[in-house]
Backbone:
């Protein structure tokens, strides 16, 4: 059975100021997520599932349906704040999405096979899809998941601080901890991040970070729902509370129910967090196109 690619595309991008998912960056107006789908098809994925908001479903489908139809099976699921487990009611005034854990859960009814989960606005590189596809085809089980890791210094922005999950692994390259770290940025020749006080903490830049590229067995959906119920029980009235997929992963790791292998490759990484990054992304994709990694026209 071919693996599925789950693309989280429901966010609006507050720092970017618009719908990043349909921002053109390729030679013929291709978006970042189109390159992810292209790489997934080449790596042997059989289906793509888009998690989007119902409010922009029409525009989203018009942008991608004709390009992808016939090349890979397509499914759409909607992440809406009112879609909660039985017994929970959306608090009045809640507008913020519930987070990546909730987004992945929305695909439960359309994914029964091993799958990779990614962000729509991150360029992960062809090699990353090859290594995760191999893992999902040959190694994934209900007790064995994976994450594609990247080198911190290769994921930073020249236009502002970024948040990254700093990873710790054991001697067998199994994930033991991710620390969500904020405002990571260049400071001259140094790489620094936010700390609990007014002082900056220096990093080496060689740390492995998570860019939200996961390889899962479909059994994770039951675990996500159970933990989401626990999360809502304590946090439903907090208007900015979010339920992230690493919460689920690390609960399972701490209970010794799963291992998460950290996969690494030589893939380039870049994304659009700020509007000023768009020219850089366009330039990088053009360089890859010039090298023959991608055709000038994807579809």
Residues:
């Amino acid at each position: 059975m071919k693996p599925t690619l789950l693309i989280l595309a429901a966010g609006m991008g507050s720092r970017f100021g618009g719908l990043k998912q349909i921002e053109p960056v390729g030679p013929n107006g291709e978006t970042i997520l189109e390159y992810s789908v292209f790489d997934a098809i080449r790596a042997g994925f059989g289906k793509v599932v888009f998690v989007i908001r119902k409010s922009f479903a029409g525009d989203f489908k018009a942008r991608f349906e004709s390009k992808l139809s016939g090349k890979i099976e397509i499914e759409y699921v909607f992440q809406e704040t009112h879609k909660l487990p039985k017994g929970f009611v959306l608090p009045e005034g809640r507008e913020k999405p519930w987070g990546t854990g909730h987004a992945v859960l929305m695909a439960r009814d359309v994914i029964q096979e091993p799958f990779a989960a990614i962000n729509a606005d991150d360029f992960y590189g062809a090699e990353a899809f090859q290594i995760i596809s191999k893992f999902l085809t040959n190694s994934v089980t209900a007790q064995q998941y994976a994450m594609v890791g990247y080198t911190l210094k290769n994921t930073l922005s020249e236009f502002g601080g970024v948040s990254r999950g700093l990873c710790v692994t054991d001697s067998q390259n199994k994930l033991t901890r991710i620390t969500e770290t904020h405002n990571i940025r260049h400071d001259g020749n140094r790489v620094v991040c936010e700390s609990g006080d007014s002082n900056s903490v220096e990093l080496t830049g060689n740390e492995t970070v998570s860019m939200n590229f996961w390889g899962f067995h479909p059994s994770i959906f039951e675990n996500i729902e159970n933990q989401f119920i626990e999360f809502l029980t304590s946090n439903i009235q907090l208007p900015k509370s979010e339920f992230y997929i690493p919460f689920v992963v690390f609960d399972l790791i701490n209970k010794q129910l799963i291992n998460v292998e950290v996969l690494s490759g030589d893939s380039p990484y870049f994304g659009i967090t700020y509007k000023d990054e768009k020219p850089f992304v366009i330039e990088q994709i053009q360089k890859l196109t010039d090298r023959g990694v991608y055709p000038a026209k994807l579809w």
Summary: The first strand starts at residue 4 and ends at 8.
